[in-house]
Amino acid sequence: MSRILIYTSPARGHLYPMMDVALALRSSGHDVLVQTLADERATLEKAGVAHRPIAAAIEALPLDDYRGGNPMAQLQRTFDTWLARAPHEVDDLRRTVAEWSPDLLVVDTNTWGAAAYAESLGRPWALFQPYVLPLASPDTPAFGLGFSPPRNALERLRDAALRAAQRLGTRRSIAQLDALRASLGVPPVRRFDGIVTRPDLVLYRTAVPFDYPRRAWPANVAAIGPGLWAPPGEAPAWLADLPRPRVLVSVSSELQEDGAIVEAAIAGLADRPGSVIVTTAALDPDGFAAPNERVRVTRFLPHAEVVPEVDLVVTHGGMGTTQRALAAGVPVVVVPWGRDQAETGRRAEVSGAGVMLPKQRLDATSLRAAVARASDRREGARRIAEAFAAAGGATRAVTLLERVMERGGAVETPVDRAA
Fold first, then answer.
1. Are residues 127 and 259 in the same domain?
2. Residue 140: CB atoms within 10 Å
3. Cα distance between residue 194 and residue 144, in whole Å
4. Number of structural domains, the chain?
5. 344-366: string of b/e by CB count within 10 Å (b at 16+)?
6. Are residues 247 and 333 in the same domain?
7. Distance CA 215, CA 209 (A)
8. In whole angstroms, what is the distance from residue 54 CA to residue 94 CA?
C-alpha cells in the first residue's frame, strides 16, 4: 500500500474533479490524503477520504480576476494571486510531507508553489489539469481568447503573435515564479504553460474530441475524461412537474458578477414553451424575479441529479458544468465570462455539442436564438458523452499513477498521442 497526497487550490471546481480518483485509489488499497479547503472536511470524510486543510493564508487570497478590464489584465490578476499563494503552498506542503511522508504527490495545476516543491523532492509526482490545457501546438489556437483551431497561415500567424504578446505580458510574473523555483533547486519554466511540462504525469480531465485533436500530444499528458463526482444529493420533487423542454441556467460558484446571464435567460426564455431552472450559486437568488410558475430560481441544486433531467444547459463556461452536461448528452449554450471559459465555450461549439455566445452580444434575443441553435446539437453532445466514457476516467488514472510509482518517474501515454 502506498501513501498518496492530493493537494488542491482553494476551489471546489478543482477538488471535486479529483474525488473520483481519490476514491478509486483508496479502493485499490492505497492510503489517500486530500489537502484542500478547510470547510470540505465533512464532505470528504463522509465520502471516506482523509482530509487535511490547506493553510488559512492560502484561502485568504481569493481570485479577483473578474475585476480586470480585459483578458490580459484578468490573466495578470490571476497570476498575481497564484504567486501570492505560492510561498504559503511551499510551507504548507513541506509540513504535510514531513508529517505524513507520501510516496506520491498529485498537485493542482493552479498551485505553482506546491508544484515547485513537489518537483524539488526528487520523488514521483503528478499534476492534475481540470480545465483546458494551455500548451501550444501547431493544431491548437493561442490560449485565452477562444479562437477556433487555425486553418491557414494567417490564423497561425495570429496565434504566434498572441503567444508572443502573452509571453511579454507575463514575463514579470514568470520571472517571480522561476525565482521561487530556483530557491527550491528546480529548473525554470520560462513561460506560463511550462509548468505542465515538468511532472511525471498530467491527468487531464477531458477527452478528444471535446478538446481539439493534436497530431502530437505531450508524452506526459493523459486525457482521462472529466471528473464528475459530486456530493450526494436529490433532485427536487418539483422538477418532474416542470414541462419540457427544460433549460437549466447555471452561473459560477466563484464570484464573477455574471448575473447578466441569469437576467437574459429569464427575459428571453420565460415565455417560450417549456421551463427554465436557474441556479445562482455565488449570486443572491433574491435579486432575480421569476415571472411565472415555469421559471424556478434558487441558489443551488445538485447538478449531478438535475442535469440528466433537463434538455439544455446555459452556462458561464466552467469546465465542471459544461462537461457534466455533455457527459449526459445534453447540449450547451456557453456565455464565457472570463478565465478559461472562452476556451471551453469554443470547444463546445467546434465539437458540435453546443453554441458559444460572447458576453458582448448577450441579451434576451441573442440568448433565445442561441438556445434554439444549440437544441439541434444533441447528437454532438451524445458523441462527446461517448468519448468521455471511453477515456478511462479514474480507473485509468489509478493505473497510470501506479505505473509512475513503480517506475519512479515519468510514464508515456501513447493512446493520447495517437488520438
1. no
2. 21
3. 16
4. 2
5. bbbbbbbbebbbbbebeebebee
6. yes
7. 13
8. 12
| Rounded CA separation 227/207 (Å) | 11
HEC sequence for 270-309 = CCCCCEEEEECCCCCHHHCCCCCCCEEEECCCCHHHHHHH
Evaluate whether residue 77 is within a structural domain.
yes
Query: Are 376 and 403 found together in one domain?
Result: no
Q: Which residues constitute the domain of residue 376?
A: 237-388
245 and 207 within one domain: no
Please indicate, yes or no, if residue 232 is contained in any of the structural domains: no
**233: amino acid identity, one letter:** G
Question: Which residue, 312, 306, 324, is CA-closest to 373?
Answer: 312
- Residues 30 and 158 reside in one and the same domain: yes
**CATH number of the domain where residue 383 is located:** 3.40.50.2000
Please compute Rg for the chain using Cα positions.
21
Residues 242 and 363 in one domain: yes
For residue 419, pLDDT beyond 60: no
Give 222-234 pLDDT, tens digit per residue: 999 999 999 999 9
> How confident is the model over 241-269, as pLDDT tens digits?
999 999 999 987 766 677 899 999 999 99
- Report strand pairing: 31-36 vs 295-298: unpaired
Please give the Cα distance from 244 to 148 (Å, whole number): 33
Q: For residue 134, give the H/E element and its range.
A: none
Cβ atoms of 141 and 150 within 8 Å: the answer is yes
Closest CA to 91 of 37, 123, 54, 122: 54
User: 206 with 274, same domain?
Assistant: no
**Poorest-pLDDT segment among 65-79, 174-188, 270-284, 325-339:** 65-79
β-strand 312-315 against 332-334: which pairing, if any?
parallel
Matching residue, cell 493552479 = 110
Q: Which pLDDT band holds residue 410 (cuts at 50, 70, 90)?
A: low
User: What does the pLDDT look like over 198-218, one tens digit per residue?
Assistant: 999 999 999 999 999 998 888
pLDDT at 378 over 80: yes
- Comparing 3-7, 45-49, 61-65, which segment has the lowest mean pLDDT? 61-65
In a domain, 230, yes or no: no
Higher per-residue pLDDT: 81 or 283: 81
Asked if residue 245 has a cis previous peptide bond (ω within 30° of 0), the answer is yes
For residue 359, tell me if it sits in a domain. yes
